């Protein structure tokens, strides 16, 4: 009786040497700095000299800080722009490319189109951001020039400078940048869907829309979960896009927690406060991740 | 156990190797003063870049056997990481650093910079630099500028002025203004012809510098000192600030400044002026060399019309980190940059030298630039920059001025500025 048990445990421990480097690296690069960040968040510190312990002071200030709450509200819209909308568009595009384009125009056309949509993902975020800031520029920007050219010149304005449009413009850019990721994941997910399912549905007279709803979406649910989790976390961490496009402006209209934390760290030399924001943001991301993983696990259980 | 023992040994060996490597690094820096580690962030083709390149050559010629290890850094890079770098073993022997309470002042308070006072008096640098320019080089124990301890040496100075596109003035039959009334009359004339008179950038310093200049038009030295050096209480709802914010908002409404410039950066605004789209740019002398090189039209510069005080100060500082291991070499290098030759190079390349011999400046526009600056220092007219007094103020100014341009009431905007200012004052 003891032998198989011992054998299993030896087998389990046998993996340890392979896990160790990753574990050490994680501890050194993520674990320790995160704990230090939490520690710093209980202090008042300029980044140099001795930090002064102030307990929950920074957190009490956070609760009252209107700018902090506004930055979280902006982030909700950014989740919409970086996670929800690209996932939906990605789903439709993936289904259309796999189910329609691939079948009628051949796989080559489908992959060319896929590569075109994926392109923004390859571009460094900062470069894409700079290019978009040119496109959206109030004078000589391509977007305004285009509006002028089609006779809608009255709509032309300072997209990133008007608080009414700044956040929406940033969200628009993010949608453009983000679509390629869900598309590629969904298309590869669709590869493993048995074509006979589609054929059977087609024989039964199901339209493209019904096939999408009843075959495509249910079949790639695991991919949808992964994409939503991944893009939501990316949206919560959104920083370079904001940094390049608006620096949180105009007048804080596009401020997000990650940028706000950076401003406190480096512009205001208020490292303790910046750490408190970063800690809250990390906890929100961790909580969301746990909720997503739970939901996914439950979904898989039900699916079985 | 044996395995664990072996890994522990490997780890220990690695740690020992790492320690000895850092120790070597430390030794290298101090090996008998054979190396001068120098950091600065001026572009090679800028006036300062040219002057300091020459100074490095001169230093190498006068210090045979000493190697200058120069690292070109970015302005932002040094601004954001200096405290951490200076607190480490990697600090250079001499570096360029931003002036002001929130930067050089903060580092001096934290004991990261060398007190240069004895060297400054010994080498006579204090005689070369006018008292007005000295303010940003000297700090008190709290790190407030204008103290009595030298923590840096400025080689150059800078100030804001109006750049005029003379061709556009001539073409639209408008006279270049010399008084404030003439300035507004000229702007009215341009607006009437469909030309936006002033180039502007709402996402960076240009917009709030207008607000400060307009406030300065109604202010005096005591007001500036109270704001910049905390010698008194600053009330942002006083007459001067209210005039500044209200007038600026009014200028946006009147079309003197494009409302569409809220999201623009300083580079956009400068390029737009240099490409001949705007008759005027109100910005720093740091643009001078570029305008000279790039503008395809006839242009000239002058101090803000009618101003007794304007934005300006000594330039960025040479500082010697506390941890520098070759301080004598650092002082020798600073000394070379203060000499007539480096100062003349700086002046002829479009910079504002602090200790130049006027006869050595040959370019006519550069002569005017320096003469205007000398006029300002003689009349105690340098009022520094609005974002200096507290850390993080720059972002607050940008955000609030953007709101002002987008129609938020001046009182509300100034209230926001007051909140950041009060929250950031040294305790």
From TrEMBL, chain A:
This is Raffinose/stachyose/melibiose transport system permease protein. Residues 72-292 form the ABC transmembrane type-1 domain. It is found in: Cell membrane. One of its GO terms (cellular component) is plasma membrane. Keywords: Cell membrane, Membrane, Transmembrane, Transmembrane helix, Transport. GO terms for biological process: transmembrane transport. Pfam families: BPD_transp_1. The chain crosses the membrane at residues 15-36, 76-97, 117-137, 166-186, 220-239, 271-295. It is a multi-pass membrane protein. The keyword Transport applies. Belongs to the binding-protein-dependent transport system permease family. InterPro entries: ABC_transporter_permease, MetI-like, MetI-like_sf.
TrEMBL record, chain B:
InterPro entries: Bact_solute-bd_prot1, SBP. It comes from Actinomadura citrea. Keywords: Signal. It comes from the Bacteria. Residues 1-25 form the signal peptide. This is Raffinose/stachyose/melibiose transport system substrate-binding protein.
């Amino acid at each position: 009786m003891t032998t198989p048990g011992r054998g299993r445990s030896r087998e389990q421990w046998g993996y340890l040497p392979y896990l160790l480097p990753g574990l050490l690296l994680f501890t050194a690069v993520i674990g320790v700095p995160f704990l230090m960040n939490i520690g710093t968040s209980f202090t008042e510190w300029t980044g140099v000299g001795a930090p002064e312990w102030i307990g929950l002071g920074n957190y009490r200030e956070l609760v009252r800080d209107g700018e902090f709450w506004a930055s979280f509200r902006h982030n909700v819209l950014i989740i919409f722009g970086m996670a929800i909308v690209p996932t939906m568009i990605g789903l439709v595009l993936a289904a259309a490319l796999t189910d329609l384009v691939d079948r009628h125009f051949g796989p080559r056309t489908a992959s060319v189109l896929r590569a075109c949509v994926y392109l923004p993902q390859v571009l460094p975020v900062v470069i894409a951001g700079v290019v978009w800031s040119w496109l959206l520029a109030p004078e000589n920007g391509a977007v305004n020039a285009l509006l002028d050219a089609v006779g809608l010149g009255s709509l032309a304005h300072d997209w990133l400078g008007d608080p009414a449009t700044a956040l929406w413009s940033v969200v628009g850019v993010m949608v453009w940048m983000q679509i390629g990721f869900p598309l590629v994941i969904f298309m590869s997910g669709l590869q493993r869907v048995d074509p006979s399912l589609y054929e059977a549905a087609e024989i039964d007279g199901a339209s493209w829309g019904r096939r999408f709803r009843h075959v495509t979406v249910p079949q790639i649910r695991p991919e949808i979960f992964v994409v939503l989790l991944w893009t939501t976390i990316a949206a919560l961490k959104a920083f370079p896009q904001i940094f390049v496009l608006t620096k949180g402006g105009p007048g804080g209209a596009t401020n997000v927690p990650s940028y706000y934390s950076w401003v406190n760290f480096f512009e205001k030399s208020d490292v303790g406060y910046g750490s408190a924001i970063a800690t809250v943001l990390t906890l929100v991301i961790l909580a969301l991740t746990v909720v997503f993983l739970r939901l996914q696990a439950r979904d898989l259980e039900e699916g079985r | 156990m044996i395995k664990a023992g072996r890994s522990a040994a490997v780890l220990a060996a690695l740690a020992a190797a790492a320690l000895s490597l850092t120790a070597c690094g430390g030794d290298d820096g101090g090996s008998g003063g054979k190396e001068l580690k120098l950091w600065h962030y001026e572009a090679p083709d800028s006036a300062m870049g040219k002057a300091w390149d020459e100074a490095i050559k001169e230093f190498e010629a006068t210090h045979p056997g000493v190697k200058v290890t120069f690292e070109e850094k970015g302005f932002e890079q040094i601004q954001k990481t200096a405290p951490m770098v200076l607190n480490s073993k990697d600090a250079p022997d001499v570096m360029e650093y931003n002036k002001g309470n929130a930067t050089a002042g903060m580092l001096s308070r934290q004991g990261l910079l060398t007190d240069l006072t004895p060297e400054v008096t010994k080498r006579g640098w204090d005689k070369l630099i006018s008292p007005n320019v000295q303010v940003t080089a000297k700090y008190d124990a709290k790190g407030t500028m204008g103290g009595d301890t030298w923590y840096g040496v400025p080689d150059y100075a800078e100030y804001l002025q109006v750049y005029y596109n003379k061709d556009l003035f001539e073409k639209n039959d408008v006279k270049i203004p010399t008084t404030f009334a003439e300035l507004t009359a000229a702007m009215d004339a341009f607006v009437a012809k469909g030309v936006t008179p002033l180039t502007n950038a709402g996402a960076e310093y240009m917009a709030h510098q207008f607000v400060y200049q307009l406030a300065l038009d109604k202010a005096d030295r005591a007001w500036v000192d109270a704001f910049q050096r905390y010698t008194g209480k600053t009330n942002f709802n006083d007459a001067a600030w209210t005039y500044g914010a209200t007038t600026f908002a009014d200028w946006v409404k009147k079309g003197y400044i494009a409302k569409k410039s809220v999201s623009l950066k300083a580079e956009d605004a400068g390029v737009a002026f240099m490409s001949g789209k705007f008759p005027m740019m109100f910005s720093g002398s740091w643009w001078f060399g570029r305008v000279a090189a790039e503008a395809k039209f006839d242009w000239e510069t002058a101090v803000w019309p009618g101003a007794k005080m304007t934005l300006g100060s000594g330039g960025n500082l040479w500082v010697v980190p506390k941890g520098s291991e070759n301080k004598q070499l650092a002082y020798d290098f600073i000394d070379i940059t203060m000499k007539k030759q480096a100062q003349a190079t700086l002046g002829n390349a479009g910079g504002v030298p602090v200790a130049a011999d006027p006869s050595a400046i040959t370019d006519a526009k550069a002569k005017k630039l320096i003469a205007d600056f000398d006029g300002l220092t003689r009349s105690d007219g340098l009022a520094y920059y609005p974002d200096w007094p507290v850390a993080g103020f720059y972002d607050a100014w940008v955000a609030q001025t953007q709101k002002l341009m987008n129609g938020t009431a001046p009182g509300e905007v100034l209230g926001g500025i007051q909140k950041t200012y009060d929250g950031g004052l040294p305790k």
